[in-house]
Amino acid sequence: MRLLRVPVVLAVLYATILSGELLFRPFCPYYVMFSFNGHDVEMWSYALLAVFLVGILVVPMVWCRYLCPLGGALWPFSRFSFLRVRRNEASCTHCGKCDRACAHSIPVSKAGDVTSGECTLCMECVESCSESGTLSVAAAKSNRRWPRLAVPAAVGILLVAGLFAGELISVPSYATEYAAPTEGQEVREVHLKVKGVRCVDTAKLASTVFDGMDGVLNFTAYASRNDVIVTYDPTRIDVDFIVKLVEGPVYMAGIDEYVFNVYEVLEIDGEPVNPEPNEN
Question: Is the pTM of this model over 0.85?
């Protein structure tokens, strides 16, 4: 069952890449519990939280052991940890107290160094041992195959690669089609830099200003860059009116009110809306 974390990690990564947003928030019991009805938390999120809270009464750390994506991502790296729980075979009585104390069901009494990726160094096994000095935390043996800096170096390389890839590969945070273009219809695009479009939810909200608007065909937002692309029919609507719609009042369903000054258009097709005056 521990392998269930692998598809969860892959699903979270896939959804994040597609949307540029942490869509996993409403599913995460820790976020639901400690965000105090935070961003993206739904009513069903609390029902899911209740399931996990009941589940830990039956299976200790059921979320961490079987579903947590962070645990799944760190799992392979844990094997290269600098510190280990070490067992002294000579003084061990094989009583099994350490095995029973381990929340991750690691067979500590059969290990030399505990190298399992499940180990979080919680020290429960060490505290449960009645034989002084039998279990301790020590540095990993020096004859291991990987240099100590291999893992942090690999993580750093992946981080830098991810940052560069994020600049090279652009995936829309949100996109919607209002109407399909008809045969012979003139179609144009306007690229807007919109202050206030910063995540999936704000992009979705910005798109609602075009609901039912004749002449607007598509809306695409790249929240990480504050970019909005509107496809439209220039014979029915113009760029100035599109900008007015974006900067106009936005209906907030949660409070059942229209809110002003939510978005501000900074650029139109790469040109600043209010360019700085030329000092010369």
Answer: no
